[in-house]
Amino acid sequence: MLRKLPFILPFLAPLLAQPFDLALAPPRLELLLPPGETVQAEVEVSSERKVEVSVRAVGFRLGEDGSLLLEEEGSLCPHLSGYPEALRLEPGERARLTLQVQLPEGAEGTLWCGLLFQGAPIQGRDERGLRVSFLPRILLAVYATPQGRGNPALRVVGMGRGGKEYQVLVENPGNVLLRPSGRLFLYDREGRPVGEVEVEAFPLLPRGRRLLTLPLPVEGGGKALLLLEHAWGRVVAEGVW
Asked: Which terminus of the chain, N or C, has less C-beta within 10 A?
């Protein structure tokens, strides 16, 4: 069962986390290890305010728009241990968690799990004075990939103009986590370069898709050339704009 819920992810924390004010370092764990091996990884949890949170392992995936979708179970969750069920921090206090991750012998491709830190509901009022509440939470994503048992693959499903923006649909038909990044190069109808757009790195889970919406810096039309690179290779695709 999937649930699409509002989260305070590390890169969204400034938006909602002022009353919660919980920080994780590092914001995620990406591990490469032999199957059957157990590794330890440290995570520092800190807060400038007094907080009390529950901690539990959850599964998740990412929607085409990059939204976070909770699942009841994650492929790595049964193999992740060492975290407390609850955590209490005084203002300015830092806590170090030593997590243990073990890949099963027959693991193929990336396994992942999320550690969900959740506080008590926070009450407040919106700009219109109406009473609102939200559940403060932050997710630590943990990924583990077995050495020598990955099948990385990246494919551009389609690309084309959508009004004043350019859209690219990419998918990961392989079995390992990818973080593609690159550039979109724009040429006019005579083949002259007229602009380019940076594609910032984004996570793409195995068997996942992502719809990228990129700004068009110039007006006109012609050929578009997309270059995406990741840790195992690169993909080049052509389209029009």
From this structure: N
Strand partners, 193: 187
Domains in the chain with CATH codes? 3-146 (2.60.40.10), 155-240 (2.60.40.10)
Q: What pLDDT sits at residue 72? A: 78
Question: d(Cα 167, Cα 170) in Å, to the nearest integer?
Answer: 10
CB atoms within 10 A of CB 55: 16
- Quote the tokens at residue 234: 């690169």
Which residue stretches of the chain have pLDDT < 70? 1-20, 125-126
Between CA 226 and CA 137 the distance in angstroms is: 36
Opening angle at CA 119, ends 114 and 122, nearest 5 = 130
Q: For residue 114, give the H/E element and its range.
A: strand 111-118
| Cα–Cα distance, 228 to 193 (Å, whole number) | 18
Nearest to 39, CA basis, from 73, 82, 78, 74? 82
Tokens of 221: 């039309």
What is the DSSP track for 61-109? Answer: EE-TTS-EEEES--TTGGGEE---SEEEE-TT-EEEEEEEEE--TT--S
Distance CA 128, CA 119 (A): 25
CA distances from 69 to 5, 22, 117, 210 (A): 7, 21, 16, 14
